[in-house]
Amino acid sequence: MVDGSMDGQMISNAFHHAYWGFPLSLYFWLVGGSAGSFVVSTLGWVFGVKKYKATAFFASNTAIAMLMIVPLLLITDLGKPFRFFHLLLLPSFSHFSAPMVWGALFILTYPIGMLFYSYFVYYKNERMARAFGIAAIVLALCTHWYTGVVMQLNPSRLPNHGSVAPILFLTGAYISGIGLLNILLWIRNKFIDAKRQVSDAILADMARLMLYGIVFDMFLLFNEFLQMTYGIAEEHTILYDVLLGPFIWPYLYIEIIWGLIIPLIILVIPKINRSLYWVLGASFMVTTGVFGMRVWWVMATQYFQGHY
Amino acid sequence: MKINRRRFLQGSTVAAASVLGASKNASAMETELGNASYNYIKRGEQRERVFSCSPLHAHDNPVHAWVDDDPTIPENPLTGKRGRQVVELSGVTESVRSRGRVSAAEVTSWLQLYDGDRLLSPMKRVGKRGSGRWRKISWKEALDDIANAIKASSPEEIALMRGKDTSAGAWDHFMHTLGSNTIIDLDGAANRRMAWQEAWHNGVSVPDLAHSHYILNFGSNFFVSHPDYAAEAFDGRHLRRARIVTFDPRCSKTAGLSDEWVPVRPGTDGVVALAMVRYLLEMGWADKAAIKRLSNFTAESLTGELSKYTLDYAAEISGIPAKTIRRIAREFGDSEGGCILTGAGISGHTNGYRTEQALMLLPLTAGYIEARGGNCLPRQFELGAIKPAPQAPNRSNPVKHPQKFPVDVGDAYAVGLLFSYNTNPAFEAPAAAVWRAALADQSRVKFSVAIGTFGNETSEMADLILPEAHWLERNEPVQGTGSLLPWVSLRQQVVTPPGQVKELREMLRDIIHTTGDAEKMRYWQFRDTRQWLGQQLNDVAGLKKDGGWELMARHSGVWPIYGYLHPEIRRIVDEQGEEVMPEYGRPVKIGMKTFPHWEPAGDVATAKYELALLVHDSDYHAGDASANNKVIVENSLANHLHINVSTANQLNIRDGDLVRVTSKAGYLVTRAHLTQTVHPETVAMHRDGGHWAIGGVASGRAGPKHENAPANIDADIAHNLWWTDSGVHPMDIILPLFDETGGGAATAAAVKVTKAEQGDTYGTVKTDLPGMTALLSQPAGPAERG
Amino acid sequence: MSGRTYGYNGVPPSKGKKGAKRYAMAVDLRRCTGCNACTAACKTAYDVPLGDWRIWVMEAETGEFPKTKRHVMPRMCNQCDQPTCVRNCPTKATFKHPDGFVLQRYNRCIGCRTCMVACPYNARHLLTDYRRDKRNPRNVADKCDFCIVRVTRGLAPLCVTSCTGGAMIFGDINDPDSEVARTVAANKTFTLRPEQGNAPQVYYIGLNEPIADPEFAFHHRSDQLHDRYNTFKKNSELGEELAGNIIDTDTGFFGIVGQGVHNMINFIATAPAKFFRGLF
Ligand SMILES: Nc1nc2c(c(=O)[nH]1)N[C@H]1C(S)=C(S)[C@@H](COP(=O)(O)OP(=O)(O)OC[C@H]3O[C@@H](n4cnc5c(=O)[nH]c(N)nc54)[C@H](O)[C@@H]3O)O[C@H]1N2
Ligand SMILES: Nc1nc2c(c(=O)[nH]1)N[C@H]1C(S)=C(S)[C@@H](COP(=O)(O)OP(=O)(O)OC[C@H]3O[C@@H](n4cnc5c(=O)[nH]c(N)nc54)[C@H](O)[C@@H]3O)O[C@H]1N2
Ligand code: SF4
Ligand code: SF4
Ligand code: SF4
Ligand code: SF4
Ligand SMILES: [Mo]
Predict the structure, then answer these.
(1) Global pTM?
(2) What architecture is domain C23-212?
(3) ipTM reported for the complex surpasses 0.95
């Protein structure tokens, strides 16, 4: 750090905390997984892709279950957990310029929409399932989009402060949701009778859906990377000294290599991209890779600015 | 400078705005710069104000203590009582000393009132001296023990060892009552005091920084160590574009924020000064008339003495390029009035006395003595004596050399009873380990009593510790120092002390009364300390006429009130808005017994592969008085070894490496901090590291992450204290070397710096006790004081 | 006064609401001694916990021996005119007072820390559960409030009155006669990170670029400072609860995973206590 050519050193400064940490990374991951699962769930009932109908009920319930944990995480992470209801005291307390408030609305209504959807899927009520499915999928997207916006609207938090951020976030949600669902469905298959099992072919089809997401995700990431190699000095620092420094594991190794590149390779090789264990492997890599992304996404810029 | 009563009365009540109305200046801050405080927890109610005066820095500082008397306030953890608590400190705006400002150490010092590590009752040693095991005892038992020790000692065997004397004469009164004048004055800046004392019969020079155009600072980190001087100098810089030039081997905070830093080799400032003087004389820029008028020298006699001090000679010795010395000399001589400032960096070498006197020649030659912007005699009011006063013993102080206490005690003079007050030589003195050994030796110090608000490494070696009131809990008159507008102030008991704690004056009285000696008790007849304080203040010439000390105590805390703080130029102005100026031109005659020729400083004379280790004051600490203060400790970095990058590269030392610093006295192990801010031949540490006896914060043992952390009553400390590195004690490896003329100790040493060896752990200190004792025993030089 | 110059940044001081005051601060760094009296005064008067600061002094050393300089810069909340902290706070617990203060309503704050992430200046902190005076708010966000209790009663902020060098000038920048307005007009002033668009209301005079630059602060931490920061992260109870402090000496695979696991365990372990203390 200090050598003969140094032009100075900072010797005193405040140490303010990183404000958001692993619990929030986990929250971002879960809420993403939930939205992703739910998107898969709606493919059959809302978008009319028949073969996915079998997964719908389970996927929707998975999404609901994840969303049950999510508020717990969020609330526990508050300095004053019992005051979480301040977020809901509409309109007297809420502050509509804050994406957190939008999020509170979404997180509140989205599980309700999903519950109704699940209910009608269970009773095979095509029309109502479709109606609630559409409502819930919009909410699912919104829930995720807002989460991205929460990060986007912090002017000093590069690279999150950009309009790609929410889309990147959604894409991550989509692929991690599918990946997670694939694994859960496979586990579920072990416990239920053959009739209700989801076929390997469907899992492979879902992996194909995931592949599209991976490609899009990489495309967005590459865009972001490009921008960071240009830009002002701070973007360079974030890229080279933070993301490829202390955060190299979550960023480069876990997200990009483990979570995107290797699954991409697996899923484009014709020989293996429909074989169950390769598909499951790729799914696992993608989900965990996205967790890596959630970690650096939340913490890297806080780490950087913590030194200012 | 006529002070009339009306002005005194109006002092703090006239709003700044009315001054502005009278002045031509445009309006300034619409908010006032002090004199109020509000309880923000309770709807912003106005708080109660009590005036006091902080003793923490070299110059005392008048302050307001703000008190909440609020039933919802959590109970005082030390007394278990609710009610009045000090919650804030701020400066007195009318004070010419501070103009409302307070230092970091001062503004946080009220925390110490409620510190869980405070001493709350008298304590008696159990086990060996220094074992750190104590038993609480009653005052009666403590006083009886002391009275017995007094009876068992002859008067001159009763000794006092003290640091800065904050007692306003009480200690001398006490010692004289007992018939003793055995006083060990551990004054760090002794060389400076002696040098000036001899030269112009006053141990101090006050630089008129605010009105100066050129400030030459030699070896003082005064931006942080003397906040009042800093404020004045910054006014000079702001209002008069004064240039501040700092000579220091280390780019201290002061040096780095000065207009120019001159990295002088340690101990060589004298030669630089002499060369500058010679140059000024040679170029005909010296004020010959002033030299003649103000000293026993003449331009010719000076020229004669200075023949060898050419610029090149000085350059070679000091490492400063000749043209830099020449330019600064010229700028100084050319300025419309400049002054010098000297610090512990000058006094703290074995040639400190001579260097001080050599530096004195600079303002003399330029004619800046007792002139605006120059170096002036101090202006002070005399406090009244404590009456009736016992006769001072008519022999001279047997302590010829305070710094040689560890070898002289029990030999040159006997000590039957030793009081130590406001000093911590077992930690702060050179070769501190030798001090600890001497203090632990019961055959040499028979009975030892330490007095303090907190324990320290010195009281750890005592037989008895008496809990003293914090300065916000005691009544003491204060003689103002450091300013060219004289002033007096007072400390008042803002809140009552907790537990068994007593004020010093009460303790001393009780000791005398316990002896049962009516003749002695005669000198200690006061109802309470406040009455006594009043007696002393009422004798200050002019104060009584102006309304008396009680008015001052209620009204302003300082006297006289020269005017008001101008909210924009932030100086004290009169009713016309004109700055109140000091008077200059007091008669001065500088004379020196011998011409202050330069000789090398023995402490930093380095051999090959050696470096000079400078141990300096820490930026934010006020000596050890702030050592247990959480806010101060949090802000001060641990005293890692500052070493120049190029030096470190040669020694193959990287930033953060564990290093061994070895002197003839021993070695310590610390971490290296690589920096461009020290001279390559020098390394530096601050002295406020590695305490073990003051409290949990000082020793770094408090806080949630420490096993067996002492319980701390401040929840913030118990749960939030986060640092683990509280530094390394440096003073054990400083050799006991002194300036034999001035009597002051060197605070530097020649050292070798190497990478730590196997088995070395951070904080290790090893000392060669017999070697150091031998060094101390060398015959004392001419130093004689008291 | 001749034409106003707004200094290097070219950011004109905001007038805020018509007719309202706009309190602002000018910090003349040429007069700052780096003494930390401001820090210490504020910290004790407002019972700011260890590890948190409402104001702090950044300090840097630059240049090579013997051309070495020091730079100091007190930092605090800038009382921004476009405060992102306010915009992003979901409960309006933080808000912009018409006279310019950006303030906290402690009883509304839920401690979500969105405001901290939104502040480009690191000016905010979350109060711990442990304070010297138990009556003070806990577990909610806090920051410098420009000493509103003092200022509304006609008294300058405490840091300003304590300031050794007289470096801080405070007042209503909407009043052209005020010292702060004249100082800002007459000097080349800088604000921090103007590109963030927050319109900060703390104007620096004599700002040194290195110290004002987050890049510099990041790349040029001294080893000792870096160490201290990591120690702080390791030892801070609050940090464990919030679980977001990456100790960057340990960021390999096992390091990152280990920190994550450690932090999550702490997070869960402290959860029950947190829920109940949240009631109060
Ligand atoms: N914050 C703070 N303030 C204090 C104190 C404190 O402990 N902390 N203590 C008080 C007391 S008791 C005193 S005596 C004063 C002392 O206050 P100062 O006189 O300011 O003493 P130091 O802060 O030790 O600074 C001495 C400087 O001299 C430098 N130096 C060392 N050797 C030489 C040399 O040979 N030549 C030159 N030119 N420079 C040299 C050191 O590097 C150091 O920067 O401060 C008082 N004020
Ligand atoms: N290496 C190195 N050594 C130095 C110096 C240096 O710069 N470098 N400086 C030297 C100088 S200039 C000096 S003055 C000495 C200072 O050394 P000391 O004279 O030992 O002074 P302090 O370190 O201030 O410690 C004084 C003790 O008095 C206590 N105390 C504070 N206020 C009161 C009070 O009101 N009443 C009582 N009873 N006790 C109180 C404090 O808690 C502390 O324990 O150190 C000298 N030693
Ligand atoms: S500095 Fe930060 S906390 Fe202060 S007003 Fe601006 S954005 Fe908000
Ligand atoms: S921590 Fe408090 S002030 Fe900050 S955004 Fe959340 S609710 Fe608002
Ligand atoms: S204005 Fe008040 S709250 Fe803000 S930093 Fe200064 S003293 Fe602290
Ligand atoms: S109190 Fe004033 S001079 Fe001291 S560090 Fe703070 S701003 Fe600078
Ligand atoms: Mo001293």
Answers:
(1) 0.93
(2) 2-Layer Sandwich (3.30)
(3) no
